[in-house]
Amino acid sequence: MSLRAYIKTHNPKFFSTLKNLHSFLSKSMEDSNTSAGKSDPTPPFDPLQPAVPISYPLKTLEELESRAYFKSFHFPFNKATVKLSTGNGRGAASMHQRPRILVCHDMAGGYTDDRFVQGGGNADAYAIWHWYLIDVFVYFSHNLVTLPPPCWTNTAHRHGVKVLGTFIMEWDDGKKLSKQLLLTKESAQLYAERLTELAVALNFDGWLINMEVTLDPTQIPNLKEFVGHLSQTMHSAAPGSIVIWYDSVTIDGDLSWQDQLNDKNKPFFDLCDGIFVNYTWKEDYPKLSADVAGDRKFDVYMGIDVFGRGTYGGGQWTTNVALDVIKNDGVSAAIFAPGWVYETNQPPDFQTAQNRWWGLVEKSWGVIQNYPKILPFYSNFNQGRGYHIYVDGEKVLDTPWNNISSQSFQPFIEYPGDPTTQPIQVVINFKEASYSGGGNITFKGTLAGDTFTARLFQGELLLGNSPIHFTYSVKLSGNSLLGLALEFLSAKKEKKTVLLASSGNTLLTMNRFSKHFTYVIMPRQVTKLEKEPGWVIQESSIEMDGQILREIRAVCYKSRTEKSEVIVKDKTASLDPSEYYAVLGHIRVNTSAENSDFPPSSSWIVDSQYIEFTSGSQGSKNLSVKIIWQLKDGNADLFPNYNMYVEKLKSTSSRNPNEMLEGAEQEYLGVAEVESFYIFDLVIPSGTSSLKFIIQVCSVDGASQKLEDSPFLVLKVEAS
């Protein structure tokens, strides 16, 4: 899609040679694979057979037409469960009437670590966490039908970002497929309807259509029918959905990238919701495209290739050059392959380089998504990867993992180009203990002045006449303290600020901060965790009727100046009076001061499917099984995910048939986003009589049901 565009534009003769070479090599590879197939010990992928759930694309029109995907074992696991957050509670979100940012994923060909629906074991897996800078996310690969893995849809929807799959035809294979697709008006409608069915069933928001093939002019009417019918059926079946056309084949049937909106591609633009313009455009093309689009200029997405292949401004670390031109001309941007940072191992490390690169995007474009918008609001700053997992301050997993579905709302942390200029370093920390999930925000450095503040969230939350409650967890070293600064705006645009102070001397705190904030609120309750020393839960309440919560900031300050002791990784060290260290584990904002109510265990139906025992070593067994559950009555949407555990039980006497194995504990298996979980090759020690699978229900406000109250299933172990 990218390099081909550049070669086609600048050297069409070489492009033709390259196409012929591609066809020859493809045919040679097919012949080689055919001859080698008899000796290949790896069985072909069979989507009907139980296996570790994965996401995968469709590669043929036959798969699409037959609806074969819906018969796949993997299909139920691939349904995204997080509804698109609109912030108004009124259903589908329309596109913002302003310049927008579309991000086209295209990371290493797609379906890498993210293909494992229930998560993988790579703490360094690729992820995106700057969702507040994105309007639309496209999952891209070079397969015919690219279905977004649900992890991307779940986390994007959580942040208010639409997600599109990709339908692409390219090279000689694509030309052959286009004949089948565009054979008749009816065939064009059929495949459009099949694409709509997939998007609706998997809960993503539409399609990017990329027809990178030369067509016969007689095929163009049916291509227009395909684009228009796909747009109509998507809009009807999923209000708020969008279909975007990629600037490739023209209305004349030529594969000729226009690099702008003009009369060669506008007929397709007129039939859908936007155009992704190829990225080899000139400086005046955004303005020319805006003129052609008229009142739909925000539906023109000017492409930028982050790899810099012929793109205006050079991409890479100067991507902002193109962004500045695009925004100045009032159209939208389509950023292609931001995974460049990851794929090219930009120094010094992915986390730092990613934050620096997206900082360029924010500097050019500004923040475009706001949260919190609705309550409850919860964030544990989890990026969907890490080296451990905690639940309510207690470690349940101590091995590397990745699962983008587990991302909570991502903080709007500002990253300076030179971090050494900041007195306090603010970072997402994967290595130190978390309160929940696999990360935290660590504040570390030298506090030269009285306070240091750091942006956490920029919201758009209208408050009613009920109090709202803030709960957050902190670990504080020495005399370091951490509070939250809230900024409110009234209907008359009057600003008020509130400090939710850390626990301490009330009188001293009031005297110190009252002149800087409209209100200073001390915690109404402070709880120290017994199981995990160091974590302190602070709860505060405020009432701001009619005000809009616009910003949440962390406030770093100190209670005294004498030398203190700091505990880091269970080691005690001296802390200089000016040194500062604090950890923020989570933030919860809701309208109730009480914990979430969970249905009792008896309210759930729990069952098992696809049970398979196999023999292991030294008398052990292995088990593969699918656990499914369903709430009998009530709203399961209140429970977005479920932590899975197993207890391995043995019978030691007739009086106690389900005694826990000596030394065994509840073993964490993973997290489910749907009401099912597949366990593959679970090792069962010799002597185990039964397995107790526990489904820990988690609520939208981040609370987790007590394990002893959670639904469960006991499965007897087959005798040898």
From TrEMBL:
<keyword id="KW-0963">Cytoplasm</keyword>
<dbReference type="GO" id="GO:0005829">
    <property type="term" value="C:cytosol"/>
</dbReference>
<dbReference type="Pfam" id="PF03644">
    <property type="entry name" value="Glyco_hydro_85"/>
</dbReference>
<comment type="similarity">
    <text>Belongs to the glycosyl hydrolase 85 family.</text>
</comment>
<comment type="function">
    <text>Endoglycosidase that releases N-glycans from glycoproteins by cleaving the beta-1,4-glycosidic bond in the N,N'-diacetylchitobiose core. Involved in the production of high-mannose type N-glycans during plant development and fruit maturation.</text>
</comment>
<dbReference type="InterPro" id="IPR057882">
    <property type="entry name" value="ENGase_C"/>
</dbReference>
<dbReference type="InterPro" id="IPR032979">
    <property type="entry name" value="ENGase"/>
</dbReference>
<protein>
    <recommendedName>
        <fullName>mannosyl-glycoprotein endo-beta-N-acetylglucosaminidase</fullName>
        <ecNumber>3.2.1.96</ecNumber>
    </recommendedName>
</protein>
<feature type="domain" description="Cytosolic endo-beta-N-acetylglucosaminidase TIM barrel">
    <location>
        <begin position="111"/>
        <end position="388"/>
    </location>
</feature>
<dbReference type="GO" id="GO:0033925">
    <property type="term" value="F:mannosyl-glycoprotein endo-beta-N-acetylglucosaminidase activity"/>
</dbReference>
<keyword id="KW-0378">Hydrolase</keyword>
<dbReference type="Pfam" id="PF25529">
    <property type="entry name" value="Ig_ENGASE1_C"/>
</dbReference>
<keyword id="KW-0326">Glycosidase</keyword>
<dbReference type="GO" id="GO:0006491">
    <property type="term" value="P:N-glycan processing"/>
</dbReference>
<feature type="domain" description="Cytosolic endo-beta-N-acetylglucosaminidase C-terminal">
    <location>
        <begin position="597"/>
        <end position="718"/>
    </location>
</feature>
<dbReference type="InterPro" id="IPR005201">
    <property type="entry name" value="TIM_ENGase"/>
</dbReference>
